[in-house]
């Protein structure tokens, strides 16, 4: 699945929800299901510290594709992380660098990605791209 | 006190957030402003905007009169002895920075000590750390217990002849605890007389309690307008005249000088020597209006109403499973801080917002407090004069729903 297709799939999923409760129930569910990050990657180096919540992000390169794993102490942030990883993880650095996060706006969660929100998610996206950039040069 | 009549003065309350009626419980961060305060600002800009203290023309005279009347109003409000003891600042933060900077110039020395508590807001910690760095003085802090009660005996034991400054909050923004500052000030005075200077951070106190700086006998008292129904960007530093007139100015510029040559400047009298540059004129005038609002409503009436809401909310929140209240001092003002087992404060905050309820989440700029309880932060509901029991009911129902969603 391309990044574009993964984004479209999420948009289609979210089209079913007609009230905020269903939507957030789904995000919380995604957050709970997010595969556990390996504890050894929950280091200060991988920590993105927001004022509201903390996010850990780890990346590795396997055969030219980047695989991300991440965690947060807040479950809604974790649900959104789950969406971001679904979109970005397992692609080449070039694909990742070319992609945007407009799908988050389309599913009505843009408030969580506001730079002033300080929940670690904006920095996390920056970090996803930084890893892609760093690993593409290898 | 007629709550409907009070609410009618706050037009902002009459709106929907996420299709639910707004319940504004983030008053500890900033209060809403009554119409008369908002109108006093537009009235100033519509009719007599002009710079103060320097014009000979009519508008400047009017602006100056109103600005100085505002100073008088603040003086009366906190019962200061002289109006020169009232310095207008940007807010509590600037007030404390002013004192910390000035005292580190020619008062605080290497080897001496500044004493604070562990329940201070960052703005009553960091300026003192900076002052200590500049001077080589040492910062000490008294702890508090698991209920959020200041360890007064420990604090008293930390007062020595080395203690040159004691800086304490009257009400904790994260816990709501009202500290026995009168008892502490009396103790410091009995031990060190006037050799130890005492600053009280009144940011969370002034909106809820009546304050008398002469009765307290503190040297400095700092507070913000925006938490007491006035706009942001205006605050107050009260300082005893005999002290302030000897202190080094914090910022240089216009209005704070008597004469300037390239070689040397002679500083102006109080309070102007601490008000460099064009001040926040409309802010001071609006603060005066906010004080009138509080006085006409009755500061004790406001306190009684908020206390009733706090008691009611504290009882009701205990029915929500997993709730742990952070800050259970018997003496509290307007703040209900809590965590819920198995949930993160920011998640609760996001979901409450979806239901129209505005609360604060996070560390409340008091990280040492959070460290003490070993939590990343709390959810904080804080009350003002316009809040109602019915809003508390909405908040509790929303909280129950949020917790159910998160579990």
Task: Describe, in plain words, how this protein is organized in 3D.
The complex is a heterodimer of chains A (138) and B (407). Chain A has 138 residues and is of the alpha+beta class. Chain A is 49% helix and 14% strand. Chain A has a single domain (3-136), classed as Sufe protein. Chain: A, CATH 3.90.1010. Chain A contains 6 helices and 3 strands, in the order H-H-E-E-E-H-H-H-H. In chain A, a hairpin with a 2-residue loop joins strand 2 and strand 3. In chain A, helix 2 (20-33) packs across helix 3 (75-88). The two termini of chain A are 24 Å apart. The mean pLDDT of chain A is 89. Chain B folds into 2 domains: 3-32 and 299-406, Alpha-Beta Complex (Aspartate Aminotransferase, domain 1); 38-295, 3-Layer(aba) Sandwich (Aspartate Aminotransferase, domain 2), CATH 3.40.640.10. Chain B is built from 14 helices and 17 strands. Chain B has helices at residues 3-7, 35-48, 58-78, 92-106, 126-135, 152-158, 181-192, 213-216, 241-244, 281-297, 299-317, 345-354, 367-373, 389-406; strands at 16-17, 20-21, 23-24, 86-89, 113-117, 138-142, 163-169, 197-201, 220-224, 235-239, 257-260, 265-267, 323-325, 335-340, 357-358, 360-362, 378-382. In chain B, the strands form 5 sheets. Chain B has a 7-stranded mixed sheet with strand order 4-10-9-8-7-5-6, with helices on both faces. A 4-stranded antiparallel sheet of chain B has the order 13-14-17-16, covered by helices on one side. In chain B, strands 1-2 form a two-stranded antiparallel ribbon. In chain B, strand 1 and strand 2 (20-21) form a beta hairpin. The mean pLDDT of chain B is 96. The chains are: A alpha+beta (138), B alpha/beta (407).
